[in-house]
Amino acid sequence: MNNRVVPVVVWQHAEDAALLANTRAHLVRAPHVKLHHLRRLDDRLAAHLDGLAVAGDAAAVLTMAALERPGSGETFTAAVGAIELRDAGHLDKLLAIAEALPDIRSGLIGAFGWVSATTLRGITKPLLDAPNAFHRQVGLAACAMHQVDPGAVLVAALKDADAALRARALRVAGERGQVELLQACLNAMADDDVRCAFEAARAAVLLGDRVTAVTALHATCAEPGPWRGRALGLALRLQTPAAAHAALKALSQDQASVRQLIRAIGVVGDPHYVPWLVQQMHDLKLTRLAGESFSFITGLDLADLDLDRKPPENIELGPNDDPDDTNVAMDEDDSLPWPDPDKIAAWWQASGPRFSPGTRFFMGEPPAPAHCLAVLKTGFQRQRIAAAEYLCLMKPGTAMFNTAAPAWRQQRLLAQMAA
């Protein structure tokens, strides 16, 4: 070990980088985080990673040692170092660990999205050409995150025997806007693997199909399963007001689906449903979710405009310290503001007339490319994810904007898009 390296300092950099990477994985999909918030965290994370880079091989030894108890953040930190040092041995070990432990794969793949595209030269191609299907998955993910065409490897992966690789390939085809693969995605909707069938339908919709793939999404919406919510959100963004009303009416028949109904109203964006949302804000279990859907329609930042209230006292909506309480589920609405129904009702009374019922509103205006670009600049992460999807739906063949990319890269790309 280099005598100028202080092990305890390197360990601190490694631990802090892993912690921030774990935090970042949550924040990129959080309802209360804007791009400038993400930039602050990314700058801190980059500083710790720079500290590790200065330590060189000494840091590599320590970060790999941390994988004795691997987590997503530790995997991210070690992988960034292995990529930047071009350490093939450590990278192969990380790939093997991630293949064996699916829970840490996001950390590995996130590292490929974090580093610059130039850093990946000579690393991604061997992954794409590897006989190992998981290695090819990582290679395809890296290409998608840096908007590089994987070429024939992507086409071959669409028909690979490995279902996880097929699903990744379908996702990449759709999010890269590769319209020449539309027919292949339509064909893949018959895949026996449920995830592959969903990813195929989603990709086909993003690439412009508005018939067969939309029908498949509706079928997914009708069945319980992990893809139902995503399929419903995508299908609702494509529906006419009349069709959306019918879908919401069907959801309203099942009291167990009330949370899904509230989310769906935010996607549909019809001001007709705002008074009902305001009513739901009186229910402490639904109030924050209803507030978020209200914001999706109106574009209001409830906390910034003082339309929120203090959290009620003595209410526990997530895990608690009671060892006999078997409910360990996290609070789904954590970090959302608590809306004040009376203040919001008064605001709607004064300002609601400018929102025409039967018109789709997204963040205060009907969806349009310039407006979605503005949301990508100023919205919260969940709103930015929706804006990125709208841009693809409005212009099939558009590459999906990566709202999880390093914040400085996002800011640079947004400046280019506005020019």
Order of helices and strands: HHHHHHHHHHHHHHHHHHHHHH
Mean pLDDT: 94
Q: Distance between termini?
A: 49 Å
Number of separate structural domains: 3
Q: What kind of sheet is the major sheet?
A: none
Q: Enumerate how many helices there are, as a single number.
A: 22
Helical percentage: 55-70%
Q: Could you tell me the number of beta strands?
A: 0
Tell me the Rg in angstroms. Answer: 23 Å
> What gross morphology would you assign?
globular
User: Which secondary-structure class do the elements indicate?
Assistant: mainly alpha
What portion of the residues fall into strands of 2 or more residues? under 5%
Query: pLDDT under 50 segments (min length 5)?
Result: none
Q: Your description of this structure?
A:
The protein has 419 residues and is an all-alpha fold. It folds into three domains: 1-115, no CATH class; 143-238; 253-418, no CATH class. The chain has 22 helices and no strands. The protein has helices at 7-27, 35-55, 57-65, 72-85, 88-100, 105-114, 124-128, 133-145, 152-157, 163-175, 182-188, 194-206, 212-221, 228-238, 241-252, 258-268, 274-280, 287-298, 341-351, 369-378, 381-394, 407-418. The termini are far apart.
